[in-house]
C-alpha cells in the first residue's frame, strides 16, 4: 500500500507531495511510518485520500479557513446522501469565528461520555446505552476516516513540559477543530516528538468523526473512551471541542494519573502579589461555572472606581467598597492543573503547573467594551490569529468578545469561548508553584425569608482538610451554570431549588475510572499537603445579595494581603452550618471592614436564622444523600471516618480532630 500524500495547508497549486524531494513534508511522512501504532490505525493513515501533517501553526490556521481561504466556509458531511452542515467558519481580522447551526452543539452535553472498554469504570458503558459493543462502531469509524482527507496533529497531552506524546486525527475540512486542539495542548511537530521520544507509541489518540452523531447517535454528542493500559483512544462524534479536545484530553490525564498515583485538578491558579510585594499562590476549584476562569481576572470596578460587592435582591440597595490599589495577578493555570508526582517536593504544600498550553476562556461575562481590558486586548489585537466559538463573526471584521451568538430563542448563547495560547497572556507564570491557599467556589442562589434556599454560604469560610475533601467530593453545581447543557433531570432539580453534584474534585465528569478510586487519590493529595490552607467562597449570591464574582475577587485580595500569616483561633467563629467550617470574626481589607452580614448570612435582615437553617438543611441533606455511595470496601479508612461524621450531623470539631488545620 502506498504512503499517504502530504499536502501543505493551501490546498492550491503549490501543494507538495512525496514526489517532491525538496518537500519539508518528507520527514513527517517518515516519522508517521516509524510510529508504534495499532495496525488498524496505521491502515487509516496509509489509506486516507491525503494526510496533512502541519509543520507550523500558520499552516494549520490556513487549513482552518477551508480550501478557498475564506471568508466563509461551511463544514459539511454527507449523511444518508444529504449534506449536513455541522459548523460555519468565518475569517475575521483577529482569527476564525466558529458557529454551530444547533443551539445544542454550542455547549458540552454532560451525558456524552461513554466507555468502550472493559476496564474498571463507574461511567456509562457504550454497550449499556447503545445496545451492543463499541468494537464494530470503532471499526466503522476508522473505515470512514480511511476514506477522508485528514489532518494529523501531534501534541503532548498535559502540556509541553510534562505531556505525553499523542495524536489527533481529524477530517481536513474540520481543521478549525485541529487548530483548537493544537492551541490548547501546544503545537508541536512529529519531528520534535520523535527527537524527544524516539519512534514513540502515542499515549493517546483523538479521532473526530462528526457525521456519526447523525448516523449512529440520533444527533446527540457522544465521546467514547476506549482504554488499554498503554493507549487511551478518544472517539469524538461532534465538532464542539469542549468534551473532546478540551475535556477529552483531561480524561486521558486522569486515566494516566489513576494508574501512576497522581491527579490533574479541575482548577485555576494565580500568583497574587500585593501592593507590599507579598506573593501568594491561590488555587481555585469548583464545578463548571464555579469561578475558575474568574480567579485569574481583575476585580471589576464601577466607572467611579469603586467596587460593587453586592446588590440586595429585595431592596435594590447596593453595597460598594473602595480599594485604592489591588494586587497584581499572574496566572499560573486556568482550568486543568497538573499535580504530577514528579513535581511534589515534600514541603507540605501542593506543587502545581499548567496541564495545557492554551486556555478555553468563557466570555459570557463580557457584555460591553472595557469590562476586562487585559483580556480584551488579547482577543482584539492578538499577536497571532485566535479561534472564537459562539461569537458573531463578520468576514474580515474584528470578532468582538461581547458580541455573543444568539441562540434560536433570541437570547445570547451563554457559552461563548475563545481559545487563547498561554504565550499570549501577559505575565503568565511558566514555572511550577507551591499552593498557599486552595479555594473552592460554589454558585449560590439568592436566599430570603420568603424564598429560602441553600444560598446561605458567607463570603469566606476556612475549613479543615476533611471538609475541603467533602466539598470536592460533592462539588455542588447550582444557580444557572452557563458552561454545559443540563440533563432533563438536572434541570428539574435545579429549577426547584435543588443541587446537582459534579462529584469527586469536580473532575469526575471527565474521569473514566471509579468514584472511589478518584476519592482516594484526592484525599491522599489533600492530606499530603497540610500546609496548604482551605477556603470556601460563593459566587452569584451571598444570602439576599447578588454578588456575581465580586466576593471571590475580594476574598482573593484578603487572602493575599494576609499571605502566610497565621489565623488565630480567636479570630474564627464556628459557622452555624458545620459544613461551612469556620467564619472570620471580622474581615478587613485595606482598612475597611466588610459588613458582618456578608460573613454570617443568618444575620442579614432579609434572611434570618429560620431561612438560614432551612438552607443549611437542604445543603446537609444533599451532602448526606450523595456521600452514601462512597462507603465501599475500597474507600480509604480516613475517608470513611470523615463521611461518617457528616452522616451523623457531626460538628466542626470532629472534622478538625481527623485532619487538623495548620496555621
UniProtKB/TrEMBL annotation:
Kindly give the InterPro entries that the UniProt entry links to this protein.
DUF4914
A matching Pfam family: DUF4914
Disordered: annotated segments = 1-27
Q: Which domain of life is it from?
A: Bacteria
Its recorded name reads: DUF4914 domain-containing protein
Q: Which organism is it from?
A: Cellulomonas carbonis T26
Q: What is the lineage of its organism?
A: Bacteria, Bacillati, Actinomycetota, Actinomycetes, Micrococcales
Amino acid at each position: 500500500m502506498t504512503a499517504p500524500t502530504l499536502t501543505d495547508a493551501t490546498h492550491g497549486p503549490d501543494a507538495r507531495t512525496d514526489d517532491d524531494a525538496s518537500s519539508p513534508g518528507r520527514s513527517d511522512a517518515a516519522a508517521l511510518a516509524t510510529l508504534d501504532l495499532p495496525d488498524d490505525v496505521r491502515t487509516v493513515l496509509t489509506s486516507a485520500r491525503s494526510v496533512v501533517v502541519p509543520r507550523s501553526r500558520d499552516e494549520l490556521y490556513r487549513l482552518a479557513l477551508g480550501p478557498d481561504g475564506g471568508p466563509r466556509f461551511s463544514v459539511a458531511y454527507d449523511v444518508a446522501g444529504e449534506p449536513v452542515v455541522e459548523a460555519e467558519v468565518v475569517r475575521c481580522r483577529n482569527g476564525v469565528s466558529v458557529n454551530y447551526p444547533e443551539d445544542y452543539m454550542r455547549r458540552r452535553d454532560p451525558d456524552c461520555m461513554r466507555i468502550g472498554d472493559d476496564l474498571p469504570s463507574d461511567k456509562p458503558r457504550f454497550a449499556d446505552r447503545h445496545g451492543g459493543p463499541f468494537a464494530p462502531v470503532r471499526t466503522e469509524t476508522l473505515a470512514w476516516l480511511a476514506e477522508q482527507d485528514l489532518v494529523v496533529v501531534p501534541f503532548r497531552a498535559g502540556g509541553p513540559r510534562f505531556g505525553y506524546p499523542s495524536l489527533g486525527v481529524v477530517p481536513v475540512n474540520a481543521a478549525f477543530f485541529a487548530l483548537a486542539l493544537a492551541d490548547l495542548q501546544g503545537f508541536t511537530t512529529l519531528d520534535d516528538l520523535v527527537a524527544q521520544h524516539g519512534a514513540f507509541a502515542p499515549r493517546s489518540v483523538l479521532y473526530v468523526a462528526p457525521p456519526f452523531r447523525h448516523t449512529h447517535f440520533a444527533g446527540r454528542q457522544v465521546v467514547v473512551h476506549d482504554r488499554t493500559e498503554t493507549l487511551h483512544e478518544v472517539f469524538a462524534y461532534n465538532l464542539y471541542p469542549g468534551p473532546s479536545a478540551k475535556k477529552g484530553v483531561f480524561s486521558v490525564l486522569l486515566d494516566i494519573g489513576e494508574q501512576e498515583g497522581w491527579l490533574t485538578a479541575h482548577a485555576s491558579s494565580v500568583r497574587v502579589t500585593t501592593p507590599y510585594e507579598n506573593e501568594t499562590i491561590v488555587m481555585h476549584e469548583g464545578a463548571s461555572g464555579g469561578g475558575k476562569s474568574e480567579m485569574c481576572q481583575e476585580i471589576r470596578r464601577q466607572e467611579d472606581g469603586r467596587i460593587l460587592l453586592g446588590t440586595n435582591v429585595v431592596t435594590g440597595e447596593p453595597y460598594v467598597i473602595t480599594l485604592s490599589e489591588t494586587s497584581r495577578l499572574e496566572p499560573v493555570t486556568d482550568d486543568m492543573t497538573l499535580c504530577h508526582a514528579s513535581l511534589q517536593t515534600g514541603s507540605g504544600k501542593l506543587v502545581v503547573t499548567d496541564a495545557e498550553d492554551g486556555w478555553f476562556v468563557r466570555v459570557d461575562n463580557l457584555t460591553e467594551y472595557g469590562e476586562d481590558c487585559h483580556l480584551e486586548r488579547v482577543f482584539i489585537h492578538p499577536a497571532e490569529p485566535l479561534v472564537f466559538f459562539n461569537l458573531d463573526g463578520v468576514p474580515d471584521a474584528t470578532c468582538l468578545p461581547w458580541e455573543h451568538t444568539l441562540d434560536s430563542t433570541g437570547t445570547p448563547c451563554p457559552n461563548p469561548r475563545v481559545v487563547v495560547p498561554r504565550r499570549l497572556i501577559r505575565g503568565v507564570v511558566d514555572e511550577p508553584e507551591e499552593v498557599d491557599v486552595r479555594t473552592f467556589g460554589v454558585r449560590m442562589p439568592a436566599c430570603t425569608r420568603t424564598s429560602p434556599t441553600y444560598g446561605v454560604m458567607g463570603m469566606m469560610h476556612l475549613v479543615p482538610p476533611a471538609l475541603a475533601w467533602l466539598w470536592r467530593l460533592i462539588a455542588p453545581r447550582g444557580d444557572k451554570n452557563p458552561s454545559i447543557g443540563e440533563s432533563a433531570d438536572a434541570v428539574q432539580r435545579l429549577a426547584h431549588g435543588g443541587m446537582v453534584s459534579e462529584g469527586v474534585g469536580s473532575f469526575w465528569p471527565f474521569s473514566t475510572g471509579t468514584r472511589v478510586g478518584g476519592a482516594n487519590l484526592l484525599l491522599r493529595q489533600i492530606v499530603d499537603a497540610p500546609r496548604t490552607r482551605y477556603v470556601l467562597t460563593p459566587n452569584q449570591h451571598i444570602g439576599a445579595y447578588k454578588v456575581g464574582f465580586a466576593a471571590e475577587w475580594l476574598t482573593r485580595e484578603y487572602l493575599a494581603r494576609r499571605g502566610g500569616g497565621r489565623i488565630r483561633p480567636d479570630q474564627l467563629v464556628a459557622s452555624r452550618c458545620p459544613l461551612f467550617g469556620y467564619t472570620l470574626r471580622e474581615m478587613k481589607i485595606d482598612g475597611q471592614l466588610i459588613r458582618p452580614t456578608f460573613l454570617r448570612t443568618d444575620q442579614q435582615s432579609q434572611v434570618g436564622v429560620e431561612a438560614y437553617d432551612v438552607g443549611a438543611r437542604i445543603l446537609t441533606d444533599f451532602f448526606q444523600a450523595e456521600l452514601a455511595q462512597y462507603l465501599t470496601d475500597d474507600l480509604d479508612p480516613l475517608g470513611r471516618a470523615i463521611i461518617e461524621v457528616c452522616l451523623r450531623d457531626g460538628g466542626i470539631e470532629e472534622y478538625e480532630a481527623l485532619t487538623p488545620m495548620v496555621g
